[in-house]
Design brief:
InterPro entries: Anhydro_N_Ac-Mur_kinase, ATPase_NBD. It is an enzyme of class 2 (transferase). It comes from Solibacillus faecavium. Its EC number is 2.7.1.170. This protein has two domains: about 200 residues, Nucleotidyltransferase, domain 5 (2-Layer Sandwich), CATH 3.30.420; about 190 residues, ATPase, nucleotide binding domain (Nucleotidyltransferase, domain 5, 2-Layer Sandwich). The protein is of the alpha/beta class. The protein is built from 14 helices and twelve strands. The strands form two sheets. Strands 1, 2, 3, 4, 5, 6 and 12 form a seven-stranded mixed beta sheet that branches. Bound molecules: adenosine-5'-triphosphate (ATP) and ligand AH0. The site of adenosine-5'-triphosphate has 23 residues, from loops. The site of the ligand CC(=O)N[C@H]1[C@@H]2OC[C@@H](O2)[C@@H](O)[C@@H]1O[C@H](C)C(=O)O has 18 residues, from strand 4 and strand 8.
Length: about 400
């Protein structure tokens, strides 16, 4: 039996789809990836998504239409994924989809709306109708309703699977936004997790602007590696109040907007393209370094593992190693979890918990008042749900449906 996890993150680059072996997970809590693919959104689709992530270009009709369009897009691509990998659909128990975050306001809204809110779109009923499978989605709202920030959710996954017995570890995601989970040695201290600031969000857009749309991102950090980092500018950027806010805290594209980037580019007006890209790359690194120094027990921190697309940028990785000369810095893959698939794997596991009614978030990380079972389920056909119940019945001797 298999479960599918789908992640569409803040970099708006595409869908990460993974299929994991549920029997192995159910019996031994082992994660085995059966198949994985990345579906590129392409430039035009990315632009359309980006449009609805910004106040001045989003409209109610565009958001509503994109919610349906993206649900259909995800459903069709999952069907193609299943066919491409020759998997019998009867063996798939569920699909768990994060959706596309288009707005995230974790602190409290404005005027009348003094309440935290977040919205992930890509309607799960469309995915379920197209695939004939139960689909779990809309995870973050349950954590927010319980008083949490609705993020970082992968802190739960990091805590369950990646804690070490002897040393303190930081698991750093560098996607569109950066986030960290600090894991103290097992049995000592508490997990600390928050968004560190920009991951690739500013960098990607700067590359697009400065190469006149010829490149979407700095592949392997090749542009940045030819430039010189201007640390004096970074010092100015680090004065932004987000970096000194108390925990819990999370952020998103709402802070790192086009206007924010234009201000950064203006400040670097006469620098070469390479220097500007190098400086933005180092900005991501410095937000990580400074926030670790502010919020993590540095004497206990011995290992940093990087996941997300940023781990494929050699220049970024090199700058991180230089920023933490006395700490081991490597890719997450080194400890057995493929860094680019971690979030999609995580959502497959979250979906499994939702189906079983097991809490799947870490209140200490998100700030929620209590543990909750996140996720809502759409199922257009009851049979796959019953298959899931049989999996549990057969392998664990437990039944969840009477
Ligand atoms: N080969 C590469 N070299 C350099 N950077 C890369 C490479 N491949 C991907 N990236 C960067 O990683 C980004 C995508 O990362 P990822 O898929 O982890 O983000 P995400 O999941 O969308 O974001 P988030 O984790 O914030 O939700 C790309 O936009 C690009 O900037
Ligand atoms: C609201 C939202 O989508 N937040 C994302 C974003 O991308 C990275 C960072 O900001 C993180 O806090 C979160 O995603 C990951 C998957 C998380 O919740 O762990």
């Amino acid at each position: 039996m298999y479960g599918i996890g789908v992640m569409s993150g803040t970099s708006l680059d595409g869908l990460d789809i993974v299929m994991i072996d549920l029997k192995l997970y159910d019996e031994k809590k082992e994660i085995h990836i059966v198949a994985s693919d990345m579906v590129d959104y392409g430039i035009y689709f990315k632009r359309k998504l980006s449009e609805i992530c910004h106040e001045n270009t989003a409209t109610i009709s565009k958001i509503t239409m994109m919610n349906a369009y993206l649900g259909k897009f995800i459903g069709e691509h999952i069907n193609a994924f299943i066919n491409r990998h020759n998997v019998d659909k009867n063996l798939i128990s569920f699909i768990s989809s994060h959706g596309q975050t288009i707005f995230h306001e974790p602190v409290g809204g404005t005027e009348f709306y003094e309440i935290p809110s977040t919205l992930q779109i890509g309607d799960i009923s469309y995915i379920s109708e197209l695939t004939g499978l139960p689909v779990i989605g809309d995870f973050r709202t349950a954590d927010m309703a319980a008083g949490g920030q609705g993020a970082p959710l992968l802190s739960y996954f990091d805590f369950v699977f990646l804690q070490d017995e002897r040393v303190g570890r930081a698991i750093q995601n560098i996607g569109g936004i950066g986030n960290v989970t600090y894991l103290p040695p097992s049995g000592s201290g508490e997990v600390i997790s928050f968004d560190t600031g920009p991951g690739n969000v500013l960098l990607d857009r700067a590359v697009q602007i400065l190469t006149d749309g010829q490149k979407n991102f700095d592949d392997d950090g090749l542009i940045a590696s030819k430039g010189e980092v201007r640390y004096e500018i970074i010092e100015k950027w680090l004065k932004h109040p987000y970096y000194s806010m108390p925990l819990p805290k999370t952020t998103g594209r709402e802070l790192y907007t086009e206007d924010y980037l234009n201000d950064c580019l203006k400040l670097m007006g006469n620098y070469s393209v390479e220097d500007r890209i190098a400086t933005l790359t180092a900005y991501t690194v410095q937000t990580i370094k400074r926030s670790y120094e502010s919020y993590l027990p540095m004497d206990e921190l011995k290992e940093i593992y990087i996941n997300g697309g940023g781990s494929l940028n050699s220049c970024l990785m090199q700058l991180l190693k230089e920023a933490f000369p006395h700490i081991k810095v490597s890719r997450l893959d080194e400890i057995g979890v493929p860094g680019v698939w971690k979030e999609a794997i995580g959502f497959a596991i979250f979906g499994y918990n939702t189906m079983l009614g097991i809490p799947n978030q870490l209140p200490i990380a998100t700030g929620a008042k209590r543990e909750v079972v996140m996720g809502k389920v759409a199922f257009s056909d009851g049979n796959p749900w019953k298959r899931f119940e049989r999996l549990r019945g057969e392998y664990s001797g437990e039944s969840i449906i009477n």
